[in-house]
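Incident log, structure service

09:12 report received: a user says their structure output differs between two submissions of the same chain.
09:20 pulled the input from the user's history:
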Amino acid sequence: MLRVLSLGAGVQSSTVLCMSCDGVLPKLDAAIFADTQWEPKAVYQWLGWLGAKAEAASIPILTVSKGNLRADALRSRMRSDEHKQMEGGRWASMPLYTHLKGQATKGQIRRQCTKEYKIEPITKKLRELSNGQPAELWFGISGDELRRVRMSKVRWITNYYPLIFGLDRPYHRRDCLAWMAKQGYPAPPRSACIGCPYHSDAEWRFIKADPEQWDDAVSFDAGIRRVCGLTAETYLHRSCKPLPMIDFETLEDKGQQNWIHECEGMCGV
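09:34 re-ran on a clean worker, output below:
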């Protein structure tokens, strides 16, 4: 059966690929990276390192793409001056946060971008590789992410989770980082689009540290304030505020003591 890795180029999927290269896991026939063309620079740089590692083990990394998610999103937004017209065709929605002025309730748009920009291009490429014959698709999902484990909805694809079922014990994300460090390999970056609404504040701080990527995110955030079919305004951050208005600093950044890391949590009760 054909063995192919769905490569996100983050910590877990990178660990799976390296384990396969080193013989810790069975050898893969290929790895497929679905490029939204909006990954952080660190991810594209990391793919170069992974490519050399995989090439030495005769495991090809294949890149597929539906297009530029950022450009598609902006092209398909509603014109700010004509709220009944689209500036393009249909767009696979991002999980943007919504807020209707004058109301306290906030919401979130249904996520379709992962399905259309990640899952479908990989499935299409896997069909080409296997000619429709049974194939095993590996995912870099770790033991601390059991909620993400899914049976395949495609009858000729079997989903497999080597970090959970393929080792002597389930590996968590921290175990992956420890294994990579033990081999002397660099720490993989986190893989997510620059403007992913699921970023934590820590991840936004990381993006903000790079002026080019921060300007990219700020510009996009301002450009998607009005989305077709919605009366509410849309935002990248869960606070429903423009990115430049958000304080991402931690208590430590402000010179305050963070009790969570200083005691057992009872002092502040």
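09:41 both user submissions now match this output. Likely a transient worker issue. Closing.
09:42 reviewer note: Residues 113-130 form the longest helix (18 residues). Strands lie at 2-6, 30-34, 61-64, 97-99, 106-108, 135-139, 157-160, 233-235.
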